[in-house]
Amino acid sequence: MQRILLAIIVCLMTSQIVTKNCYSVEPDEFLQNPKKELRARNISKNVRCLVCQNQSIDESTAPLAKDLRILIRKKIEHGNSDEEIYDFLTERYGDFILLNPPFKISTLFLWILPFVFLAVGIFVIFLHNNKSKKLDYNK
């Protein structure tokens, strides 16, 4: 038992040493001002990587994600607000680039579709249960 526990502890300790940081921002990308860097990181966490699609550009190692991170930092250095940066990105790439798309007519199906699927699923389960109850009564 002690050997198993020791092996688990050794595996956990070495896995912490071996794993790399989950964020892919490289040291040459960092801004000197910590407040501006924090803004850049927050924006990057809300922007979808167009190559990886289910990752933010803050987590992605794709070259396009790196280019977008650098672009965001340049816009922050030029004094653009967060909204101006988001507007620039959505104008250029569409609402798809945002991990949380805005609620408007063109994205309405993105917000309503999960609830429609949930309602259909509940309805199918309800019908299935009613059919199985009728079969039990007929026996």
CATH architecture of the largest domain: Orthogonal Bundle
Q: What string, H for helix and E for strand, traces the elements in order?
A: HHHHH
Mean pLDDT rating: 82
Structural class comes to mainly alpha
Named CATH topology of the largest domain? Helicase, Ruva Protein, domain 3
Radius of gyration: 24 Å
Q: Termini separation (Å)?
A: 54 Å
Strand content: under 5%
Total discrete domains? 2
Task: Tell me the major beta sheet.
Answer: none
What's the CATH first level of the largest domain? Mainly Alpha
Helix content: 55-70%
Which stretches are low in confidence, meaning pLDDT under 50 for 5 or more residues running? none
Per DSSP E runs of 2 or more residues, the count of β-strands stands at 0
Number of helices: 5
Gross morphology is flat
CATH homologous superfamily caption of the largest domain? Cytochrome C biogenesis protein
